[in-house]
Amino acid sequence: MSTAAAGGAAPTGSVPSSTKDTPKPPSGDGTGRPGSGRGGGAGRQPGGGRPWVVVCFLLPALVLLGALVVYPIGYSIHRSLYDAGGGGFVGLDNYREMFSDDAIRTAVKNNLIWIATAPAVATALGLIFAVLTERVRWGTAFKLVVFMPMAISMLAAGIIFRLVYEQDPDRGVANAMWTSVHDTFSAPPPFPGAHPRPDGGFTLDRDDSYAAQSVAATGRTVPVPLVGVKRGDANGAGPAKAATPEPGKVTGTVWLDFTRGGGGQRNVLDPGERALADVRIEAVKDGRVVASATSRSDGTYTLPQAAAGAHLRLPASNFAEPYRGVDWLGPSVVTPAIIGSYVWMWAGFAMVLIAAGLAGLPRELLEAARVDGANEWQVFRRITVPMLAPVLGVVMITLMINVLKIFDLVYIIAPGSSQDDANVLALQLYKSSFGTDVNQGLGSAIAVFLLVLVLPVMVLNIYRIRRERRR
């Protein structure tokens, strides 16, 4: 039995009635639903359960989607069923014409080449760059340089590579490098474009070589005057020296039959005329080369006794044009050349995405494989690549969709003479709709066909995204 303390104080250990009798606030929001108070968002429906709020938020996006995507697709399908003027219904005739046109068939073939090569090469290079630059100190700077072409527009890249692929090695970087490598292993012709005078005793053969009309005899000299030598080819040559007869041998001099300031005699070695070195002279009997010699720095040459009774010949290799490299923009290699420019631009994009995926790989798995004795190639092939498969799939599908729409590079890089050989569907769509022979019905049919080609890749991408979400 408890007793009250004096002065109305509560007894020790007792709880004030005001605290005991105060009810606790409900855990809900007054509706009987737990955890749905003002401070929490669990269980809350989008728009507060009001559908018109959701519609208001989605309406601008739906209007833009309908105006920029749905309506153009529907109109293109409708327009593809009409003739060039749009007034006559032709049904599927535009589609029949599309598959019977040689230019469109070439465009389809080139698009297949693009899809099969460009995404794979760009992804492979991006994977190599991402893996190799992961451990080097200057990897970030290298990635910046590789990714930099992504900041350049397709127009600018096309102009750059149009200059890179110039046929003239003095202007085109590609052929400048190619000819430098070629000339390292194969000596260029000494005097391209040069030739003997018509009255100099040599006549042009069918194989572009020059043969002497008279038969050589030992103990005599056979002069070889040349004209048409380019100024740069004769620079540095010393004065020509008249050859002296030698018993049992055929001798002669090769020189530039030109005297500065005029004067001098034709086919005669005049004082001050320049020697031509490294010219090859052959002695031919019965169609067979029996002896050969090369002119020295003073222009003289000496043939052995075997040259007696033979016709002297100047091979065409002395005067052939130098190697000019590859015709990069010619009909045979224009498509691979343009694909190379595309890879130059998009390899950096692939590298950045793959490097991001590579940074998220669990390092303990890679180290465990190395501890178990796997070399770097095995780690890369058995662990790194399989774990990067989702990222590689994203890159490949993105590039495939991008390649199907390629237009700018082909239009700018390919010259008019080979543009038909480099044709792709997007370019043919432009030419059919806005070119010289305007047929927007056929152009719309190409657009619909291009959409049909893109759809499987888009479906594959959606399937991949859903599969990733389920993991």
Largest sheet: 5 strands, antiparallel
Q: Looking at CATH, which topology of the domain at 101-169 and 328-438 would you report?
A: MetI-like fold
- The CATH superfamily label of the domain at 101-169 and 328-438 reads MetI-like
Under the CATH scheme, which architecture of the domain at 101-169 and 328-438 would be assigned?
Orthogonal Bundle
Q: Alpha-carbon distance between the termini? A: 67 Å
Strands, total number: 9
Compute the average pLDDT: 85
Quickly name the level 1 CATH class of the domain at 101-169 and 328-438.
Mainly Alpha
Order of helices and strands: HHHHHHHEEEEHEEEEEHHHHHHH
Query: Which percent range fits the helix content?
Result: 40-55%
Unreliable runs, pLDDT <50, ≥5 residues?
1-22, 27-41
Helix/strand/pairing category: alpha+beta
| Strand neighbour order, sheet with most strands | 2-3-9-6-7
**How much beta, percentage-wise?**
5-15%
Shape: elongated
Oligomer: single chain
Rg value = 41 Å
Helical stretch count? 15
Structure in words:
With 471 residues, the protein is α+β, with helices and mostly antiparallel strands. Among the domains are: 180 residues, MetI-like (MetI-like fold); 124 residues, no CATH class. Helices cover 46% and strands 9% of the residues. The chain contains 15 helices and 9 strands. A 5-stranded antiparallel beta sheet has the order 2-3-9-6-7, with no helix packed on it. A 4-stranded mixed beta sheet has the order 1-4-5-8, with no helix packed on it. Helix 10 runs antiparallel to helix 11 and helix 12 packs antiparallel against helix 15. The protein is elongated, with a radius of gyration of 41 Å.
